[in-house]
Each structure stands twice: as structure tokens, then as C-alpha cells.
From TrEMBL:
InterPro entries assigned to the protein according to its UniProt record, in alphabetical order: SLH_dom (IPR001119)
Domain SLH: residue ranges: 28-91, 166-230
Protein name (Swiss-Prot/TrEMBL): S-layer homology domain-containing protein
Keyword Signal tagged: yes
Presence of keyword ATP-binding: no
Region of interest (Disordered), ranges: 405-424
Keywords of the record: Signal
Pfam (any one): SLH
Length: 660
């Protein structure tokens, strides 16, 4: 929120010095008299010291010329706010340890704790104050007038965006924007002067104790006259848009009928969920809540929340996994809507929360049931929560995966308000292993781009290679995937009646396991091409390999480096036709456009031979593995066409960056 940003900016202008709590009446101060150099401050000091808000020093001096420290400033604000004993106890319980951490004096602990609780300062403020010598330092630095104005404005719940036209200071251009709004509000409240000392505000100068006495007295009068917070209690209901705890400043924003309201939260705020006591951390975007609050004179907020009750946490959400644990998942998330654009690896949201898994939560990855520990970081997840906010179902779409299911429908979907064909994208719905139907996206539809799902039919099973919910390649469900990890290998003691000498179980990237069979003619090669004379089951087990097959029989096993796999986007930049008579083979030079996943890097160039007819400048999705400077196990699918050579292709928008 804006208040938090201002707090960060101002956190460097603070200070600290001991203010001894020895109350002395103004009439007894040796250095402040009704007549003399500081007679103008006498009445202010007199009244505030009688009320116990301003205190002097041992020996009977007030020291009117001495600069005011951070701790003194907050102690004065505590006197003006006049919190209840219960409020102070709660504030110290919540923030007392922070005070101890940064060396706050024991006499100022209540005042500083209250200031953090009231959003006047933050923990970050104290951290910087300590590091820059404003707290517990032998060489004191003092808060300047800019900083004090902001703190008094916050302490009195004044607007941070007051009418700065009331400011008549000669040096107004030197006053920070973060101070002007509060200063204008203080001027309108009759606490600060519109012209300042000799026409200047002198915002970089510290404030003397005599000046602070006047500011404190006028602030006290304003608070007494208007009240910092209305005693009237009101209610508001809506859906949580944002709940944030930045630098110990807690606030929530709710929305109802397209109108948003912001509420401050402090140590007195209580929380309820399912008739049980909850905490601020339980409040999440998307929940329906009822807020009981008291109005504030600060026009930037609706009020200060007294109670926040979650009335419904049952939601459909979507986001990206940022952390996992045995009891839950942490997700950067937003509300799940039918028309949400799930075509990039980011969702524009600041909400990042941990969600506890319900006892019987169902977790699926591309339709297959898995455990929470199997979920991968950065995977896209669609998930449901119950009324208590616990996750009851998760569907995960990893960044790179393979899914098999029955096609229930296919169509093209508009991705914008435009009716242009280039703003339409293929969609396909599959019924997966868990019996549920999910939507995936294919190519953008334009004149130069083939339809990825064109040859697929409703009712048939299909295997799709996916990037989150984006389909990058299609294939039949009975296609033999011959690249994967050997999970088991069994060498028979003799050849069986089918001329088989053993079996190999291969696990593909999508987790499917298929058994193939060794024969006397099966050969084995290292990654560098060196042939291995015998089949060693112990050596081959858990190796990543490419199998050359004849049906279910293995002709050749080639060990490959799993880290050399790739799946990326490239462009055909040159085509050479084989000179042999009647040959249909062409040699294609490609340039990698995106890093993608795996071993290939943007800008690298490679060659491959194929009979398939690609055209110059075609954009292709290419996957396989890299062995030295050659590519193996290559699978290629045309996804787009450009008129010129480009240096980058955005698969999610279907557009390229052209080289000039």
C-alpha cells in the first residue's frame, strides 16, 4: 500500500537519545521561564508536563534546545494517542521482542511497540535506525522535520494526501512528496504552520524540544477535539482482494459490488474462522469475510478492523507452486476463472500463501494420482479449498510433461476481445485417468500455421507432450516411447522360444513403464559411440537410454546423458536438397530461438536431415537429446511460419522478434 512505501522511504531519518522518565512541572524547570528566551514555549511545556506527556531531565532542566530523538518522538505520540493498558500490553506482547532486538530503551519499549502496532513505523524502520546510529548509539543522529511530520500525521490518523496548496513555504520544492501530504493535513489541523520558521519548513533540520512541545500540545488538542478514531462500530462484507503483512504493517482490502475498501489491522484485531479463533496469516485472497470496524479520520482507509470473520473459504484457485511440504503447498495464486489466460509461466498477483492439505486431499499430476511430495516446483496448479481454507483437490501441470487421455472435444477459442483469426487458439479437452475432463491449448490459428489437432478425432486416445497446459506435440496413445530410464533389466540364463535373451523395463518422461525384449542381436553403445561387448544388467540399470526397436524387440541400446535432453523452439534458416537423383531428403539448418528446457541454447545452430517438407523460416518445436554436436532422438513439429529470420519466438503469443 502507499503507506508502506512511504514508511520505507522515511525509515532512514530517525534517531535515539535517553529521555529519563522523571516528571518535572514546567514551573520548576530551571531553563524555561514565563519570561526569557523560551517564554513562547512555556505554556505548551507547562500543560503537557502537567499531563505527564512531556518529561524533563534530572537536575530540573528541560533542555529546550536539545534535538528530539526517535524514542522521545514516539513517547510523545504515545501520550497523545493515550492507549488503554490492554492495548499497550498487546502491542508489547507482539512487538516487544523486536524492540529488544534493536536496542530500544526499556522506558520507550511501550511507545515503540505501540508505534509499530499503529503503523507509524515498521520493524524495517527500527533496523535501519539501529544500523545508522539512531538507537542505542554514542554518536546520536536525530529525526528531521520531514520525518517527524509524517509520524505525527500517522499517529493522528491524518491523510497522507492532504491538499498541499495550503503550504506556503519558500522551500516547498525541497519538501519530499512523501511528506507534503501529511504536512498539508497537519497545517489544516492547525498543528503545523503554513509558512514555517522565517518562511521556510527546513525539512532536513532536526526539531528542538521546545518546538516539539508546541507540536505535541496542538496535536493533543486536535485529538481531544476530533478523536483519532470514531467510537462507532460498523460492519462490511466482501471478498478479500489482498491481505498483506509488509514490514509488520498489516492490512486487508476487500471488494463488494466492484467497490474496494481497505482496513488497517492492529494487535487488538481478532480473527474467526468456522467458529474458531484464527490469525491474520489465515486471511487469504478469495475468502468471503465480515469486517467489524471503527471509522478512521484517515481518508485512505475505511477504518481499523476490530474483528475479521471468514464466512466462506471454499474457492477454486490457480497458481504456481513455490514450495512444498508434507502438510501443504505454498502457491503464488489468484482466483480461478473459466477465461483465465494460462499461457505463460507467471500470474500477475502478489498473493503467495501456504495452503494446508485436507486429510483426504486428492492430488493429481496430469490426471495421475500422486503424493504431495511428488509435486514439482514451478508447476501450474488448479486447486480447490473447502470452507475452512484447506485444500481438498489439486491438479498439477508440470513445466514439461506428457499426458494420455480420451478426446472429448476440440475447438478454437478466442483469447481476446478481437475477432481476428490470429487471436484464436486451438483447444482440446481430454478425459484423463482420474475420470475428469481437462482443457489444453494448441497452436494459434493463422494463415501460415498448421492446426496441431487437425488430424485428431473425438473419442480416440492421444498422447500429448505438454508445457504447463500448452500442447507442444501430439502422438497416438500406442506410440512406443523409446527414450527413458531403465528401471529394471533381466538377462535370461538362456534364449527362450521367442528368441529373447532378456527384458528391459523403460520408464518414459511421463512416468509410463513399458517392457521391451533383448535378443542375441541387441547391441549396446556408450554415449560417445563406443560399443560395449556384453550386456551388464548392473551397469545399465538406472541409465538413461535411447532404444532402437523392431516392434517390442530391442535392436540397439544407446546410453545418453539425461542432462542433454532438450525441448525448445527453433527456426529453419537454410535448406539444402540432396543431389542424388529422385531423392526427397533435405538437409535443414536450424537456429535455436529460445533456451527452452534442456541442453540447447538460444542462438546455437544445428543440422538435420529429413524427408518431411519444411519451408524456409518455418518455426518448429524440436525435442530429443544432444550428443556432442549432433542431435538424437529428434521429434519435430511445425508450429508457425515467419517471413524473415527472427531471433526470438514467444510461444504463448505466437509472435517473433524480427532481425532488422
Amino acid at each position: 500500500m502507499n503507506n508502506k512505501k512511504i514508511t520505507r522511504i522515511l525509515s532512514v531519518g530517525l534517531c535515539a537519545i535517553m529521555l529519563v522518565p522523571s516528571v518535572v512541572s514546567a514551573k520548576e524547570f530551571n531553563d524555561v521561564k514565563k519570561s526569557g528566551g523560551y517564554s513562547w514555549a512555556y505554556d505548551y511545556i507547562d500543560e503537557m508536563s502537567d499531563k505527564g506527556i512531556i518529561e524533563g531531565y534530572p537536575g530540573g532542566d528541560f533542555q529546550p534546545t536539545k534535538p528530539v530523538s526517535l524514542e522521545e518522538t514516539l513517547q510523545l505520540l504515545k501520550g497523545i494517542i493515550n492507549p488503554s493498558k490492554d492495548d499497550l500490553t498487546k502491542a508489547v506482547d507482539k512487538y516487544g521482542s523486536i524492540c529488544d532486538k534493536y536496542g530500544v530503551s526499556s522506558w520507550a519499549k511501550e511507545a515503540v511497540s505501540l508505534a509499530v502496532d499503529k503503523n507509524i513505523i515498521t520493524e524495517e524502520t527500527l533496523k535501519e535506525a539501529k544500523s545508522k546510529g539512531f538507537i542505542d548509539s554514542d554518536s546520536m543522529v536525530y529525526p528531521n522535520r520531514n520525518t517527524v511530520a509524517v509520524y505525527f500525521g500517522r499517529g493522528l490518523n491524518l491523510s497522507s494526501s492532504g491538499n498541499d496548496s495550503v503550504l506556503k513555504h519558500k522551500d516547498i520544492d525541497k519538501i519530499p512528496a512523501s511528506t507534503k501530504g501529511y504536512l498539508a493535513s497537519l497545517v489544516e489541523a492547525g498543528i503545523f504552520s503554513a509558512t514555517g520558521s522565517e518562511g521556510n519548513f527546513d525539512g532536513d533540520r532536526y526539531i528542538r524540544r521546545s518546538e516539539m512541545a508546541k507540536i505535541t500540545k496542538l496535536s493533543y488538542d486536535y485529538k481531544t477535539k476530533t478523536g483519532a478514531v470514531s467510537s462507532e462500530t460498523k460492519e462490511a462484507t466482501g471478498t478479500v482482494v489482498l491481505s498483506t503483512s509488509l514490514n509488520n504493517l498489516d492490512a486487508i482490502i476487500i471488494e463488494k459490488d466492484a467497490k474496494r475498501s481497505q482496513f488497517r489491522v492492529n494487535s487488538s484485531t481478532t480473527y474467526k474462522m468456522n467458529d474458531k479463533t484464527a490469525a491474520f496469516s489465515d486471511i487469504k485472497a478469495g475468502q468471503e469475510v465480515k469486517v467489524t470496524y471503527s471509522e478512521s479520520s484517515d481518508t485512505t482507509v475505511a477504518g481499523v478492523a476490530k474483528t475479521i470473520e471468514v464466512t466462506n473459504s471454499s474457492k477454486d484457485l490457480i497458481g504456481y507452486i513455490t514450495a512444498t511440504n508434507s502438510n501443504g503447498i505454498t502457491v503464488k495464486y489468484t482466483t480461478n476463472k473459466d477465461n483465465i489466460d494460462v499461457k505463460s509461466d507467471d500470474i500477475k498477483t502478489t498473493d503467495n500463501s501456504n495452503f494446508e492439505l485436507a486429510t483426504n486431499a486428492k492430488i493429481y499430476e496430469l490426471g495421475k494420482e500422486v503424493k504431495s511430495g511428488d509435486l514439482k516446483l514451478d508447476s501450474l496448479v488448479e486447486f480447490k479449498t473447502d470452507s475452512s481454507g484447506k485444500v481438498i483437490e489439486v491438479m498439477s501441470y508440470p513445466k514439461s510433461g506428457s499426458v494420455t487421455g480420451e478426446i472429448t472435444s476440440k475447438s478454437t477459442t478466442s483469447i481476446s476481445d478481437s475477432s481476428s483469426s490470429s487471436d484464436r487458439r486451438e483447444t482440446i479437452k481430454l478425459k484423463l485417468d482420474n475420470g475428469k475432463t481437462y482443457t489444453f491449448y494448441g497452436n494459434y490459428i493463422n494463415n501460415n500455421n498448421s492446426e496441431l489437432f487437425n488430424n485428431l478425432k473425438v473419442g480416440e486416445k492421444v498422447t500429448l507432450t505438454t508445457n504447463f497446459k500448452i500442447v507442444t506435440r501430439t502422438g497416438s496413445s500406442d506410440e512406443k516411447l523409446n527414450i527413458g530410464r531403465i528401471t529394471n533389466i533381466d538377462v535370461y540364463s538362456s534364449t527362450n522360444s521367442n528368441n529373447e535373451t532378456g527384458s528391459v523395463t523403460l520408464e518414459s518422461s511421463n512416468g509410463n513403464r513399458t517392457t521391451y525384449y533383448l535378443t542375441r542381436n541387441t547391441s549396446v553403445y556408450e554415449e560417445d559411440g563406443l560399443r560395449i561387448n556384453s550386456i551388464d544388467s548392473g551397469y545399465l540399470r538406472n541409465k538413461y537410454v535411447e532404444l532402437e526397436l523392431d516392434g517390442s524387440k530391442i535392436l540397439k541400446i544407446k546410453i545418453i546423458n539425461e542432462n542433454n535432453q532438450f525441448d525448445t523452439v527453433a527456426q529453419i534458416t537454410h535448406i539444402t536438397v540432396d543431389g542424388v537423383f529422385n531423392s526427397t531428403t533435405k538437409t535443414y539448418r536450424i537456429k535455436v530461438l529460445n533456451d527452452g528446457t534442456g541442453a540447447l541454447r538460444k542462438g546455437e545452430e544445428y543440422y538435420f536431415d529429413a524427408e518431411k517438407g519444411f519451408d524456409i523460416y518455418d518455426i518448429i518445436r524440436i525435442s530429443g537429446y544432444k550428443s556432442g554436436n549432433t542431435l538424437g532422438g529428434v521429434s519435430i513439429e511445425k508450429i508457425d511460419k515467419e517471413s524473415k529470420e527472427i531471433d526470438h519466438y514467444d510461444n504463448y503469443t505466437g509472435s517473433g522478434t524480427i532481425i532488422n
